[in-house]
Amino acid sequence: MRYDIIMKSNQDNVHRETEVSVKSGWFMLPIVLLIILGSIALFIYSIVTGGRNPVWGLFIISIIGEIIGVIMLNGFFTLQPNEARVLILFGEYRGTVKKSGFHWGNPFYSNGQRVLVESQIQISTPGKGTIPFTRQKAARNKISLRARTHNVEKLKVNDKRGNPIEIGAVVIWRVEDTAQAMFDVDDYEKYVHTQSESALRHLASLYAYDHGEDNEITLRSGMEEISTSLRKELQERLQKAGVVVEEARLTHLAYAPEIAQAMLRRQQAEAVIAARQKIVQGAVSMVDMALKELAAKQVLQLDDERKAAMVSNLMVVLCGENEAQPVINTGTLYT
Fold first, then answer.
1. Cα–Cα distance between 85 and 218 in angstroms, integer?
2. Which of 89, 144, 95 lies closest to 111, judged by CA?
3. CA distances (Å), 134 to each of 115, 128, 131, in order?
4. N or C: more exposed end of the chain, with fewer CB within 10 A?
5. Would you state the torsion angle of the CA atoms of residues 57, 60, 64, 67, taken in this order, to the nearest 10 degrees?
6. pLDDT more than 70, % of the chain
7. What is the DSSP string of 257-296?
8. In sequence order, what are the residues at sequence separation of 6 or more whose Cβ sits closer than 8 angstroms to the Cβ of residue 105?
9. What does residue 83 show for φ and ψ, rounded to 5 degrees?
10. Where are the beta strands (DSSP E) in the chain?
11. Does the global pTM surpass 0.90?
12. What is d(CA 117, CA 137) in angstroms, rounded to the nearest whole number?
């Protein structure tokens, strides 16, 4: 019962995006300018007409009109393609504008301080030359809807068999639900970065690096399956932030330096064994073919002892790493 209550509470706290439209900025711009310029003209007229004492009625109206015009200027904003603005009025979510262009909305919509835009500037300091400086400013609750790339740096983790490995990945993602990205997590970009690293660590612990059991998927041999699993797990983790994972792939996979040499020697030994097996299989096939051909064509008759000697000699010749030095027998086969 308590678990059901907690689940229902979490579902109630999830925000859903509502797309809304606002007035065109080109339509509102002449109106706002008319209010400002008209208030200035009215202000001047009230003073000129009244002489020493201005016409207080017109004077007060002009002041109020000027204040309203200046406040209305704060309602203009622009959106680029694949960009959205979250509208918040006195702490209440009122919708999201996704249409690009020049717009005007309620000037009391919150500009927000949570969504920040970083700009790099250069500062000259005496004796130290020019140094980069990061400046942050409010972005009026704007959220980019473009696809973004996050490179998960090399992580040192243990695979399914406990071997230390280095693994890295690249994640391509974008914001789909701006309300969830804005209100359901504190910082959706940092959330993506943290969850990507956590998911990659968890994935590496579920699979062996290589040399799995029969039909077992490993990190080295099952790249497509691993990428699909990573994308699925990331999507489950990032769904809360309104983020869609377009693609997730491994970019780096290697044994940790402390065991890399030992694993390299093991791989070399396995390669030598595999090559030897192939050579022996081929040699056995060739010896069998030679004996069958000699018997079928009745070239000569060999007893079991001579067959064994012939097989031994052929195997040495076929499996040896160095070229064989033949010894010509000028006598009979049995002397």
1. 44
2. 89
3. 15, 17, 10
4. N
5. 150
6. 71
7. HHHHHHHHHHHHHHHHHHHHHHHHHHHHHHHHHHHHHHHH
8. 22, 23, 75, 77, 87, 97
9. -140, 145
10. 23-24, 76-79, 83-89, 92-97, 101-104, 116-125, 129-138, 142-144, 148-158, 164-175, 243-255
11. no
12. 6
Q: Map residue 175 onto helix, strand or coil.
A: strand
Beta 83-89 vs 142-144: how paired, if at all?
antiparallel
State both tokens at 24: 């065109």
Which residues, in sequence order, are bridge partners of residue 92?
89
61 neighbors 92 (Cβ within 8 angstroms): no
Q: Could you read off the pLDDT of 124-173 as tens digits, one per residue?
A: 555 555 555 444 444 668 999 999 999 998 998 988 888 888 999 999 99
All domains of the chain in start order, with CATH: 2-111 (no CATH), 147-255 (3.30.479.30), 268-319 (no CATH)
Q: 29-38, 39-48, 252-261, 311-320: which range is least confident on average?
A: 311-320
Tell me the C-alpha distance between 196 and 246, whole Å.
13
The pair of three-digit structure tokens given for residue 123, joined into one six-digit string: 């500062």
Which H helix or E strand runs over 70? helix 56-73
**Contacts by 261-270, CB closer than 8 A, 24 or more apart:** 263/163
Cα dihedral sign for 189, 192, 195, 199? negative
Provide the 10 A C-beta neighbour count for residue 84: 22
HSE of 164, CA atoms in CB hemisphere, 13 A? 10
Q: Cβ distance 20 to 94 under 8 Å? A: yes
Q: Which amino acid, 258?
A: E
The predicted model gives 199-221 an average pLDDT of 82
Token couple for 124? 């000259």
Burial of 246 (0-12, 13-18, 19+ CB in 10 A): middle
Q: In what order do the strands lie in the sheet with 148-158?
A: 148-158, 164-175, 243-255
Tokens 């195997």 map to which residue?
315
* Tokens matching residue 113: 């301080």
